[in-house]
Structure prediction request, 726 residues.
Amino acid sequence: MARIHNFNPGPAALPLPVLERAAREMIEHAGSGMSIMEHSHRGKVYEAVHNEAIALTKELLGVGNDYDVLFLQGGASLQFAMVPMSFIPDGGSADYILTGGWSEKAHKEAQRVGRGKARVAASTGKDGVYTRIPKQSELNLDPGAAYVHITSNNTLFGTQWHSFPDTGGVPLVADMSSDFMWRPFDVSRFGQIYAGAQKNIGPSGLAVVLVRKTLVEKARADVPNILSYKIHAKENSLYNTPNTFGIYMARNVLAYTKELGGLAEIERRNRAKAGALYAAIDADPDFFRAPVEKESRSTMNVVFRLPSEELEKKFLADATARGLVGLKGHRSTGGIRVSLYNAVTLESTQAVIAFMHEFRTQA
Amino acid sequence: MARIHNFNPGPAALPLPVLERAAREMIEHAGSGMSIMEHSHRGKVYEAVHNEAIALTKELLGVGNDYDVLFLQGGASLQFAMVPMSFIPDGGSADYILTGGWSEKAHKEAQRVGRGKARVAASTGKDGVYTRIPKQSELNLDPGAAYVHITSNNTLFGTQWHSFPDTGGVPLVADMSSDFMWRPFDVSRFGQIYAGAQKNIGPSGLAVVLVRKTLVEKARADVPNILSYKIHAKENSLYNTPNTFGIYMARNVLAYTKELGGLAEIERRNRAKAGALYAAIDADPDFFRAPVEKESRSTMNVVFRLPSEELEKKFLADATARGLVGLKGHRSTGGIRVSLYNAVTLESTQAVIAFMHEFRTQA
Prediction:
């Protein structure tokens, strides 16, 4: 079987050893006579996996018991609705900082939910295009806001918050879908973090949510049970049947992450990958052009353009023929996007750099 | 590797050939150089799987283009909220027929959602215990209701609707989580059907929804985008990243179902399994007691009691030691429950019957 170099923006590459483990355990999980998918979510075998996924999340991030770790369905998109439904009081408001297409979506959903107001506290967009993260001085924050919402990494545009905004006493809420667990960071800066699993920690159909317990306590009670953080926290994410296979896969990815040396080692690898790729781009500014402000560059999604759209088209076709896939930029930005999530190896990154050199020489 | 007899109530047994296929394709899906989990949900490889899952659902059930088939996250529990949020008008109401714990949950969530009223049109419960399906004459239906909601099979109590209620012109909505696809049936009787996948068609973390297009058109617009049937239908269940692996597994189960001969053959097998088990119970009424009214008996979940709780405890322990697992009744009913979903074989059913005879002889 041939594995190719996969730079998909999400769902994205998974570590090969994790897939091999899933294949090995598919028919019979841990001597139990059945697949993990066939286990009751209320049985001991599954519960051990479930609780290990939660424990590993806390351990890798150094999170204590002041946060609940939830594994929910509906991805980040359901969080776009659950956050404002739970936390904006009637007549109150929340602040949204817009840095890309996904923060726009989160903001629009907060407006639709019909609880108070969803204010734009800052936006770096021009005609729907975003090339940077705002500075602290650009934020027009409301000290009375229920929370401040950011998107920590912008998959479409290739920008990333490298230091998080100071929100005073207002809880900071972050959609970390595309850069969760890429490095160690101080969770205590956040009231809530949520992330679709399908970039760095597992398959799609799963969202991990970290939420400060004191915030959960203040959540509105007038929401459907299935959308209640309080209920999901109280029931340890077993209020309804969770995505058991997705959580099993996340457990395996997290266990593998720990085995590799934890988040400090993951950060070292990610910086090596992104550093090498940006260096290749910067070394040849007449041919490769990074549209994003240098200080805002993402370590997860490296976006660049070639001198013409024709060349970009040829680049993508030639890359695919060479077994380098998932490099097409988002339709809103065009160009090339190389997603370097945790499971993308340095070898794959070097393969794309070698191809860039070769393509440049021939062009 | 040893596979055991799995009678779990859900997540439940999956067909062995389907698990074998998943193991085989885990590292590389269909010559694409990556797992199905690593494919973009907007790429051709995944989209073929997605659309085949939808087409197979329609084909197996004989459904035409007047219904949308959606694959959503959040299981049946999210449908408990989405149905009333979408369809009960301000000041209007919907009718709920209560036949077990899950229909109670659906009804309570409809009340919490805060759109109009959720009326109880019938209930066969006494002190939270349900032993039968109501007759048509017992239904106190409101001709002005937005819809009538039923739970077609009651996993906890082992009862099942064998013929569906006549609701006049009012759309019938059914939670079919635990008996979807167990036999052919006339979908055109229903405005909407929804089912968590984890009993008959796949792993947990996935719900299949069939909804009449004319009903979708009438859905309320004032819901969050992520809870909008209109948006999910328009986007072919790709508005947000779906549970791609779950849908892949459902596709495989549905393809296998077709290979076996479709739903007529599945019904024949299910009737043979349930028939044999109920016959074993009825043959020995002094020892085995089915608490459920005969005409309401479920073909999916066969519930019975032994003469004492001590014997039930011993029965369950001895069964587990013999590789017969998942037989414990729900905590609200006690006793024994044998779930005979589609993937449970006649051989497994015969194994449990043989064990019952043996246990009876020794007791």
